[in-house]
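Dear colleagues,

I hope this message finds you well. In preparation for our joint manuscript, I am sending the ABC transporter substrate-binding protein (Leifsonia williamsii) sequence together with its predicted structure, so that both groups work from identical material. I would be grateful if you could confirm receipt.
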Amino acid sequence: MRIRSAAPIAAIAAVAALSLTGCVDNSTPSSDSTSSAAAVDVKKDDSLANQLPEKVKSAGKLVVGMDNTYPPNEYKDDNGKPVGWEVDLTKAIAAKLGVDVDFAIAKFDNIIPSVAGGKDDFGMSSFTDTTEREQQVDFVNYYSAGILWAAQKGKSIDPDDACGLKVAVQSTTYEDTDEVPAKSKKCTDAGKPAIQALRYDTQDDATNAVILGKADALSADSPVTLYAISKSNGKLEAAGKTFDEAPYGLPVAKDSELTPVLQKTVQALIDDGSYGKILKKWGVEDGAVETADVNAASKG
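The corresponding structure tokens are as follows:
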């Protein structure tokens, strides 16, 4: 989870070109089933649009912070443009509100500060809603995700018994900051060798570390792991099952006028079926929610 911090579900999609060619097939598929060109048609809701803060109305757009290195949730296509199911969902939110989207591409760690400081209107980058993060921003919840490990095909790896192993993670994700360190502490508390977390700036690099044998396994949000497996040319397989499900959320500045508008808009997309169509198009419908909540972590 991009708690980055947190976790996801099931998915298969396309992805951008990778620097380590020959390891993962990262070509963007031409099929409309996973192309942002096949975005779901969404009609503007005037009543919701009228509730937008004056700043957004005047600009005629939403500035959305995104780190596009997390396929299939958000990544770059062969032309460098943002694609993924969360990109489609963001565009659907904007269409429902009758405004454009300006994707502010940034490093993951910089997005919440940009939202909290008013530079971005909200973020969309697989953020796990946590009580710690809720001290900085509010979250409009739109998905339920979990953690899934993967290893080289035929290599038996147990996420609950990984002492002494090397585990690849994307830096600052929940897997990096919470999950793997907690597992490692259990190992050392029991007198066993620690888990060595190998941290990478992008998920593609973490995936290739396992394919190339530099790491024993990878830990990531389940849609991301399933994507990695599907693009590995049969070199990777799931290690265990999905665990630790948690809510994804759109970070919005604390007490912002935009928060209730986004909550109502996401709920409207759920109710009119647009949300479900987007998730189904990308194969991530297992994580669908029926209610767009706000700050679910502190309620759970």
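For the figure legend, we might mention the following. Residues 147-243 form a domain with the D-Maltodextrin-Binding Protein; domain 2 fold (CATH 3.40.190.10). The longest strand covers residues 236-253.

With kind regards,
E.M.
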